[in-house]
């Protein structure tokens, strides 16, 4: 049996391991430097409460990924009504809600959740995507609304033909006023640089399907769907505005997958950091890793290597001649780090118009007078994330760099900062915070500035190693969702099975609009 080394135990890594075991004679060993699998999609527990790092909706345009998810974690039984999912103009029935649940592990299920998140701006809630309703107009004011309409009309009539940066991309798509009102402050909080310094490719990849026209269409469809729902009396559920979510957070998915990998003969080694990648000619022959805490070093022979480690670390650890230009690009790639402050409170001060607790999974904080960028409300992701249902467990998210003073503050100071900011903008009340913790996530967001404009040089160099497959968000330096990370691993295994040496289709994942429809007859 041949050996595969998989660097990184996030969605891309454990997906690669399971796919290899199911479809090839390769025996994988997964090397994960943390003490748990899941990567950025792991779920961390604190005092019985669980933290989802960044918020992970299980929603995809890929039948292949959706079927894969549901085979691992079936949907939890509820009312027995039919469950369908609609995209690409088609409606597909999902497996029976009572099918496939393991009697020995009834908690290993997916929940169907309402897809609701809003923008918090001017101490008011705005629908996201924006809806043309009375509340939006009331919150904006007629003058602001008129400026937004006029600005959008201007950008439509006189677009920038070849937008050179993210600011120009947003202005083309939404108009200057809408961009400055709802995109500029939040985007610059996330990346820490002005939008005109960020590549337009970020917008093309992350918001390629969102436009004012699409917002208007969605608003009209909601009105129609609302009438249809009344007529159908809720007997059919659409995931257009809903998503799936593991009962105990996204990490539950990857922990179960890791169990399957080991049950099928693969290895999942946590606490091991890959540090040296040995090459001979155009092939990787071994990966050397060090165990955190003990310093134990191990070497793993490799017939195939999947790498989801950050590319700068891969290049630094590569035991092969690296051209100076390639090394320069790798060292110039940049990342944005972030941390979540978990706050346990008695209740939220922010309420909906009916004076009920808001149902949002997260809020985008557009307010410029606080550093917080987003707030998750874990109760609304899954009640199982919260130990005491009479409390509210929230995650206040901050975007920064590891070198920033903010990142390096003591945990107690960061808990105090988050509590003070949430009080200041009216998310929580003045009552005492019950508890708090901090969870840091370095290199969470590969950046589309720095040396990224020269990324093609790096890709060309990496593609020379015929048995090396860069996969996942950091492995490909892409701001991808977890389904795209999974697809990169699936496509890489397709290539191994098909004997395909060219990796163009691997790099095409999440860059071509129709790519996910089919791949040489396969559903993608």
Give the topology.
Elements: E1 2-7, H1 11-23, E2 26-32, E3 43-46, E4 49-52, H2 63-72, E5 82-87, E6 90-93, E7 110-114, E8 117-121, E9 124-127, H3 134-140, H4 142-157, H5 166-174, H6 176-182, H7 184-191, H8 200-206, H9 212-232, E10 236-238, E11 242-246, H10 250-263, E12 267-270, E13 272-280, E14 283-291, E15 297-301, E16 304-307, H11 311-317, E17 318-319, H12 324-332, E18 333-345, E19 362-365, E20 374-377, H13 378-381, E21 392-400, H14 411-424, E22 435-450, H15 455-462, E23 468-470, H16 472-475, H17 482-498, H18 504-507, E24 518-519, E25 522-523
Parallel strand pairs: 1-2, 1-16, 2-12, 5-10, 8-19, 13-17, 16-23
Antiparallel strand pairs: 3-4, 5-6, 7-11, 8-9, 13-14, 14-15, 18-21, 18-22, 19-20, 20-21, 24-25
Helix pairs in contact: 1-10, 1-17, 4-5, 5-6, 5-8, 11-12, 12-15
What does this protein look like?
There is one protein chain. With 524 residues, the chain is of the alpha/beta class. The chain has three domains: 2-41 and 251-332 and 451-518, FAD/NAD(P)-binding domain; 130-209, no CATH class; 334-447, Polyamine Oxidase, Chain A, domain 2, CATH 3.90.660.10. Helix 1 (11-23) runs parallel beside helix 17. The model is unreliable at 216-220, 226-239 and 513-524 (pLDDT under 50).
Number of strands: 25
Number of helices: 18
**What is the radius of gyration computed over CA atoms, rounded to a whole number of angstroms?**
23 Å
CATH topology of the largest domain: FAD/NAD(P)-binding domain
The number of domains: 3
CATH C-level class of the largest domain is Alpha Beta
How large is the share of residues in beta strands?
Answer: 25-35%
Uncertain stretches: 216-220, 226-239, 513-524
Which second-level CATH architecture of the largest domain applies? 3-Layer(bba) Sandwich
Distance between the termini: 28 Å
The largest sheet has its strands arranged as 9-8-19-20-21-18-22
CATH homologous superfamily descriptor of the largest domain: FAD/NAD(P)-binding domain
Shape, principal axes of CA atoms: globular
Secondary structure class reads: alpha/beta
Mean pLDDT: 87
């Amino acid at each position: 049996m041949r050996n595969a080394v998989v660097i990184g135990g996030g969605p891309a890594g454990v997906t690669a391991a399971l796919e290899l075991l199911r479809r090839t004679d390769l025996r994988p060993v997964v090397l994960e430097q943390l003490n748990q699998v899941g990567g950025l999609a792991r779920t961390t527990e604190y005092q019985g409460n669980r933290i989802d790092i960044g918020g992970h909706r299980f929603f995809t345009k890929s039948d292949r990924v959706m079927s894969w998810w549901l085979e691992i974690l079936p949907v939890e039984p509820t009312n027995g009504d039919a469950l369908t999912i609609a995209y690409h103009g088609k409606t597909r029935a999902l497996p029976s809600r009572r099918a496939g649940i393991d009697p020995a592990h009834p908690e290993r299920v997916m929940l169907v959740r309402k897809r609701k998140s809003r923008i918090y701006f001017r101490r008011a809630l705005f629908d996201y995507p924006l809806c043309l309703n009375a509340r939006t107009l009331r919150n904006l004011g007629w003058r602001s609304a008129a400026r937004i309409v006029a600005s959008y009309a201007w950008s439509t009539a006189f677009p920038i033909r070849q937008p050179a940066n993210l600011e120009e991309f947003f202005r083309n798509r939404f108009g200057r006023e809408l961009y400055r009102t709802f995109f500029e402050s939040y985007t610059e909080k996330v990346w820490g640089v002005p939008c005109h310094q960020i590549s337009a490719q970020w917008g093309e990849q992350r918001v390629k399907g969102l436009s004012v026209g699409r917002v208007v269409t969605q608003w009209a469809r909601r009105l129609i769907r609302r009438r249809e729902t009344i007529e159908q009396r809720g007997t059919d559920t659409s995931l257009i505005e809903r998503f799936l979510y593991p009962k105990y957070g996204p990490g539950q998915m990857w922990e179960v997958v890791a169990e399957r990998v080991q049950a099928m003969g693969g290895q999942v080694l946590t606490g091991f950091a890959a540090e040296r990648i040995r090459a001979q000619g155009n092939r990787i022959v071994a990966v050397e890793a060090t165990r955190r805490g003990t310093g134990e070093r191990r070497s793993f022979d490799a017939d195939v290597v999947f790498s989801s480690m950050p590319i700068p670390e891969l290049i630094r650890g590569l035991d092969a001649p690296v051209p100076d230009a390639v090394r320069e690009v790798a060292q110039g790639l940049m990342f944005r780090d972030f941390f979540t402050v978990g706050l346990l409170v008695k209740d939220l001060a922010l309420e909906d118009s009916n004076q009920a607790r808001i149902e949002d999974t997260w809020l985008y904080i557009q307010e410029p007078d606080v550093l917080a960028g987003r707030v998750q409300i874990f109760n609304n992701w899954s009640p199982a994330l919260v130990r005491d249902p009479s409390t509210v467990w929230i995650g206040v998210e901050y975007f920064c760099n590891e070198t920033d003073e903010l990142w390096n503050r003591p945990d107690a100071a960061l808990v105090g900062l988050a509590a003070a900011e949430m009080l200041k903008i009216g998310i929580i009340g003045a009552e005492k915070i019950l508890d708090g913790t901090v969870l840091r996530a370095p290199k969470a967001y590969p950046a589309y500035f720095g040396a990224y404009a020269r990324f093609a040089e790096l890709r060309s160099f990496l593609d020379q190693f015929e048995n090396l497959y860069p996969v996942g968000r950091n492995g490909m330096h892409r701001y991808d969702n977890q389904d795209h990370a999974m697809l990169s691993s699936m496509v890489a295994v397709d290539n191994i099975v098909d004997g395909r040496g060219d990796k163009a289709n691997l790099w095409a994942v999440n860059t071509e609009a129709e790519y996910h429809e089919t791949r040489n007859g396969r559903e993608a």
